[in-house]
Every structure is written in C-alpha cells, then in structure tokens.
Recover the amino acids of this structure.
C-alpha cells in the first residue's frame, strides 16, 4: 500500500533550545520510503540521528532565543504488512528464549508500570489460553472500559493513572495495553505513526506485542484502520518516541498532520470483535 504523509510544526522559542523530533517515517523491511523531504528555516542546521536498531530516525536542531521556526516533513511510503492467522500466534515466547532486543520491552518503564498491574492482569486475562487471545482481550477491555476524550490527560499521565481514571487519549490507551501485556510476561512496545482517516488528524499512538516470534499490532482506540498506518518509531513508551522533545524553553504554536492513501486498491481493515481476528505485523 502506498501512503503520502505530511507534518508541519511551528514553534516560538524563548531561550536557546535544542529540539529532538521524531516525525520521519522509519525504514524497515516492510516499509520503504520512496521519496521524502525535510524543510526548515535556513538559520537552522538539522542533524539526523539513527536509533541503535537502525529503524527509528530523529532530527536534532538548536534554535536561538526570541525566534520562530517551522519544520515540515513529507514522504511517500510503500508498506507491505503481513496478516497472520491467530492460530500461529498461540504461544508466548518464554522469557528464557527472548533476545536482548525483546527483553527490553518486558520490564516496567516510566509510563508503563506493569509491576503495579500484575494482580489485575492475572485476574482479568490470566486464564485465557493463548498469548494472542490475552492481548486481544486486553485491547477489547481497554476499548470498553476507558473513555477516549481529547485533551483530558497530559505528558505525565501513566498507565496506572489511566487505569484509575478510566479516561485518556491514544497515548494513554497504548501505555495501558503495554503495561498489561508486560504484567503477563508478554513483551510489548509503543508504536507511533501517521494514521489514515484519523479525525481530527494527528500523530497516532498504538502498541505492538511480541507473540509467536512476531511483533503484532494492536490499537485499543479502534479509531483508524489497522492497515492504515505509517510507522515513525517504536519505544518502551512515549518517552522513547515523543514527536518532539524540548530541552529549553519553547512552545508549539501550530501543528498539521496528514496521511493519505495513493493506492486505488486500498481496502481499510477496521478492528472488530477479537473472536476471529487475525494478527497484523508491520515488522
């Protein structure tokens, strides 16, 4: 599937400030960037930094005090995702068989306090037979028990807060899903990307769980088609994959995000009841 993505962020800078942006589509075996461009003011010198796995890309730049700037990113991306029947995703990979790269996503993190949710996770989902069934049930439980409300939470809201308050945005839904998976010894990681048909348009957060040797995509919000995302980055939680990390004093004054499909054969797949659902991998 071919998608065109676009983002434009404007900032007002009050003191010398360094920015680290995560807005570029990642390069993976299933996600090919056909063309892309990154544009900003002439007085800024953007520096691209690769993540250790070579997939996520960050832009670092420094802006001086009393300035304003705009950063724009555009890309055409070709995505080849895999659909996997859930019977092939029945088993959790034992912890003693996990590689170091997967073990990273098994531990509690800043926004995903899985150690505090073990009792709930075991009670609600521990008796489900398969690993995929557990994560699908977690996704459905969040969708049915947490209210999606824009602007209700902030950058300090954690999975434990979302569980307590039962309200949040996509970032909070993802954190809660990740924490509950990890509480059941299922590695899970944060997924941020451009989303087709998201209303209002914005960057979107979901999560992936490591099941049967595959990273399988889940979206507890059910706001967008599961095959309509362009991956930007993965991380333990939003702290690793924030759209913009600001080290100084600055404020975002405008943000525009778009994701359009250029493939006439595109058939959106929306999440339904998990009973007969197949797994989808962006790996």
């Amino acid at each position: 599937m071919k998608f065109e993505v676009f983002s434009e962020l404007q900032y007002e800078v009050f003191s010398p400030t360094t920015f680290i942006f995560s807005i570029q589509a990642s390069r993976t075996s299933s996600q090919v960037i056909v063309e892309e461009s990154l544009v900003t003011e002439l007085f800024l010198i953007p520096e691209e930094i690769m993540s250790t796995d070579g997939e996520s890309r960050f832009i670092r730049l420094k802006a001086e005090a009393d300035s304003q700037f705009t950063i724009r990113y555009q890309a055409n991306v070709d995505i080849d995702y895999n659909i996997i029947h859930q019977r092939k995703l029945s088993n959790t990979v034992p912890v003693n068989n996990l590689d170091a790269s997967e073990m990273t996503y098994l531990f509690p993190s800043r926004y995903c306090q899985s150690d505090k949710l073990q009792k709930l996770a075991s009670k609600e989902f521990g008796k489900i037979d398969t690993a995929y069934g557990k994560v699908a049930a977690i996704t459905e439980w969040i969708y049915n028990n947490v209210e999606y409300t824009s602007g209700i939470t902030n950058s300090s809201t954690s999975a434990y807060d979302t569980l307590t308050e039962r309200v949040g945005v996509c970032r909070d839904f993802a954190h809660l899903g990740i924490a509950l998976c990890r509480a059941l010894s299922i590695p899970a990681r944060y997924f941020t990307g451009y989303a087709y048909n998201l209303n209002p348009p914005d960057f979107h957060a979901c999560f992936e769980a490591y099941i049967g040797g595959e990273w399988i995509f889940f979206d507890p919000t059910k706001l967008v088609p599961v095959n309509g995302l362009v991956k930007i980055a993965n991380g333990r939680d939003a702290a690793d994959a924030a759209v913009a990390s600001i080290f100084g004093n600055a404020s975002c004054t405008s943000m525009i995000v778009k994701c359009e499909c250029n493939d006439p054969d595109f058939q959106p797949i929306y999440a339904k009841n998990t009973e007969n659902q197949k797994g989808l991998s962006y790996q």
User: Anything to note?
Assistant: Residues 2-79+250-257 form a domain with the Immunoglobulin-like fold (CATH 2.60.40.2250).
